[in-house]
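Appendix B: complex inputs.
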Amino acid sequence: MEKYRKIGFKLTPQRIAILDYLEGNNEHPSAEDIYKAVSERFPTMSYATVYNTMDALAEKKCVVELNIDTHKKRFDPDVRPHNHLICTKCSQVVDVFEKYSLDIPKEQRQGFEITGNLIEFYGVCIKCKNGFPKKTKE
Amino acid sequence: MEKYRKIGFKLTPQRIAILDYLEGNNEHPSAEDIYKAVSERFPTMSYATVYNTMDALAEKKCVVELNIDTHKKRFDPDVRPHNHLICTKCSQVVDVFEKYSLDIPKEQRQGFEITGNLIEFYGVCIKCKNGFPKKTKE
DNA sequence: CTGGCTGCAAATCTTTTGCATCCTG
DNA sequence: CAGGATGCAAAAGATTTGCAGCCAG
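Resulting structure:
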């Protein structure tokens, strides 16, 4: 926790509650997930605070924003380089730490300077395969 | 054009205008881009029609929906399997047709049945590198 | 004490929906 | 001529913003 203060991230009770929720969380929660979980402890918690906090954390590279859903940002508190495996039925996202080194042949780079890559694997998770899909909106 | 009618896709003047706009377009346009371009010819064109048409095309696999931006869907009229290279400064997206075969070791699959993958390469395009970034909102 | 943080409400942006009308096949 | 498509306006969902009051450093 001290590390946050050191990098100029002011710790408030709300922020600590969010950090607690994110600690070790590998469910790639959305802003809504975070809001719902944390507002149980902080009934006055607002979305503005969730978004502010997540923006600040992303800026300090303490969290990664995922563009997996089109119109719902999700957050990954694990900032180690890794890829994702996404269930096409229930949208669950799990981490894949296998390393892949990918290169684009020069002829195909179109002048870009490559800085990195992200692999999204798609599949069907074990629950959905067995006919017990986790409920989601879509 | 005949091929659309054959697969049960009813052709209206608006739809033909959208298809014309998409033909050979490799700029991965958003609904807004499509709406703006096509409504010049069809002043009464509505977003509802753009979304309806794109949904219908996606369902017939004539177009692919891209989740590159968080809350702005983009469309790719090129349905051949390929990956994308995205400029982190101006959000331009270019196609990469190099083939990569990626596999997740069994131990890391967590019971998933893998169906596919998508690679997003990140980089800085030649214009942004040279200090002439294409204007975007963000 | 001061600048950054909070929380409410209102605004914004993208996408969806309801529905009466229109027109392709 | 029937069923799907259109287009308007309103609704919905996610995120952002304005701003007054609060509190960590």
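Residues 2-76 of chain A form a domain with the Arc Repressor Mutant, subunit A fold (CATH 1.10.10.10).
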